[in-house]
């Protein structure tokens, strides 16, 4: 299969990966044949990329970083927790919700089991979801990314679980705001941005009341908008004053936000997001954490469609973990725009004259 922009999708194309709804259920499953109506609906839902079956790439299958069943359960749990808190404001005043920590500890344990079963630690988040579900899927993605960085840092199980629970719930403070702020179709106004800043302290105050959630996990909610140079909020902390867990969650938060489509901007490629992180090294984020994080990112994920400097179009067929920026590309279109009669592969690690110009 290959990943294509929705503008390239045509009636009759077949989905290679599912489209997820806000609450973690599958809206359109693998094997669904697209119609013009489906395509227009997906566009209106904020989907800008699709994985499609393709005659030249039928054997190229991007590996999910976690299983669909694990993602479904995790997103459902985040969704239910946040929606319940939104609909029942009185819960915020309770001293403790006795099941919250236990529930999220179990969810993150399952995420880590899936991550541990992978052959490599190269990150490629290939899930597609509706814009209304961004907050819930984003929380799960941040937890996955944070977990991988925690493993790379050599954290023991206790520290990994504290980090993971904090990452799953880092945006729980958003539940104090009405739905229209969660699901805005435009960027925030300056007034809304100032109001939204309160979500860090609201989230911290909610989590610190839970007897089975550690204070360290709660600080992921409080400090994930602090910045290494002291320009963040709510307290303007800098450098080592910011807990390392919160710094990890902040990096994961920004990376996933950049690589996710939003209704008011396109999704950035993983390579573009990495450039952004490095550009903010020791300004927004600790440069050493960025280096560790980015060493586990697949610059050009499997099934990505790319344009080479020769004018050829191809699909990433495989990645060399030792040179993830020089993958094997299956050529499907020649420089003159004609489709190949038979697809063939070029290994960029062996052909230094070939370079990827951009992801399509």
Count of helices? 12
Would you count the extended β strands for me?
A: 10
Q: Which CATH class of the largest domain is shown?
A: Mainly Alpha
Structural class: alpha+beta
- What portion of the residues fall into strands of 2 or more residues? 5-15%
Secondary structure layout plus pairing:
Blueprint: E1 2-5, E2 19-20, E3 26-28, H1 36-44, E4 49-52, H2 68-87, H3 100-116, E5 128-129, H4 134-152, H5 157-168, H6 179-182, H7 190-196, H8 199-207, H9 215-223, H10 244-258, H11 270-279, H12 287-294, E6 305-308, E7 313-318, E8 328-333, E9 339-347, E10 356-359
Parallel strand pairs: 2-5
Antiparallel strand pairs: 1-4, 2-3, 6-7, 6-10, 7-8, 8-9
Summarize the structure.
With 360 residues, the chain is an alpha+beta fold. The model has no long low-confidence stretch (mean pLDDT 89).
What does this structure look like?
The chain has 360 residues and is α+β, with helices and mostly antiparallel strands. The chain has three domains: 2-52, Molybdopterin biosynthesis moea protein, domain 2 (Alpha-Beta Complex), CATH 3.90.105; 68-294, Orthogonal Bundle (Hypothetical protein af1432), CATH 1.10.3210; 305-359, no CATH class. It contains twelve helices and ten strands. The protein has helices at residues 36-44, 68-87, 100-116, 134-152, 157-168, 179-182, 190-196, 199-207, 215-223, 244-258, 270-279, 287-294; strands at residues 2-5, 19-20, 26-28, 49-52, 128-129, 305-308, 313-318, 328-333, 339-347, 356-359. Helix 3 packs across helix 4. The longest helix is centred in the N-terminal third of the chain and has 20 residues, at 68-87. It starts with a strand and ends with a strand. The mean pLDDT is 89. InterPro entries: HD/PDEase_dom (IPR003607), HD_GYP_dom (IPR037522). Pfam families: HD_5.
